[in-house]
Amino acid sequence: MLRAFGCMVVFHVPKEKRGKLEASGRWGVHLGIAKDHKGWLLWDLTTQKLTVSRDVKFLESLLKKAIYGLKQAPRAWYHKLEEALLAGGFKKNVEKGVLRLHQRKYCEGLAEKYGLQDGGKPATPLPLGFTVEPCADEEVVGESDRKLFHSMVGSLNYAANHTRPDIAFATSRYL
After folding, report:
1. 144 located within any domain
2. What angle in degrees, to the nearest 10, is found between the helix axes of 143-163 and 104-114?
3. pLDDT grade, residue 23 (50/70/90)?
4. pLDDT tens sequence across 51-64
5. What per-residue string of b and e applies to 31-65 under the rule 16 or more CB within 10 Å gives b?
6. CA 81: distance to chain centroid?
7. Rounded distance between C-alpha atoms, residue 161 and residue 164, angstroms
């Protein structure tokens, strides 16, 4: 069976070649088929030596240039993370070197959807000493109002937990 050259592998180390507290498997890189022995030719990442083993688990999905311990590995991981975050809607602040997520459009859409455009801006998410008491009569709130309330709080909870930790407590209390 053909395997991808350079893919990550985990190979078994026999008891005779390892200490009592060492792991029974090690990470390596697949280099091909051994000419002198039956088995796979591997580069052992722990000992930095060539080894031959038959008991190998191939991890072809981990074939990444930055995994091999190059000096540029952290930079490659940062660029990969940066690409994913920018694709997810984050914006890069070049002056401060930070990434931020702007959800203004999402929150304005919520305000329009639920008719809360003229709500004003409070200084705090909840006034000091604010308490909510349950209704004594279950029939006061209709099923449609209950669904609307859950939809509103769920939307706000999503925005709070992903972008606004200052309102996360106020929105997640009443779910």
Report:
1. yes
2. 170
3. confident
4. 888 888 887 665 45
5. beebeeeeebbbbbbeeeeebbbeebebeeeeeee
6. 10
7. 6
